[in-house]
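Lab notebook, bench 4. The sequencing result for the construct came back, and we need a structural model before the next group meeting so we can plan mutations. Quick request posted to the team channel:

Model the 3D structure of this chain.
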Amino acid sequence: MIYTNRYESPLGNILLACDSEGLTGLWFIEGSRYAMRGLSKDAVPRETEFFDQAREWLDIYFSGRDPGFLPKIHLTGSPFRIRVGELLCEIPFGQTVTYGWIADRIAKERGKEHMSARAVGGAVGHNPISILVPCHRVVGADGSLTGYAGGLKRKIALLTLEGIDLRKFSPA
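Done. Here's the predicted structure in token form:
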């Protein structure tokens, strides 16, 4: 069973989703590409401990501080998308990496010389657990702020909230 709930953030209303294993979705309701993609029409609004954890995390995060913990999440999808999600979770608060950095990590893990940064970009762009799985911390190798399904303005706001100096980046 999939459950849903809402969270009112400073950047817009958020829909949360979870199953019995953890949080499976966090989407800005308005103005997001892929919002609620894959969410079952049978999802039931309900309170759960996973939503309580997510709300606590989001309250701390939106106050401009590193929450220091990650609510229980349940990454789903192909093994490749799950691995990209795991690597996203390793990006520290207030730091960024490139799509190429993630591609290089996966290539090394798989014993390959090269992995497509474009394939990584597709997985990052379809991340269903926005903010908690910090896809907003991934930037282009040329310093461009690309690839945030929640929109460029939100990506800039999230990076600014984390204290990242945006002068070194350019809009996509």
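The two ends are 38 Å apart (CA to CA).
Will bring this to the meeting.
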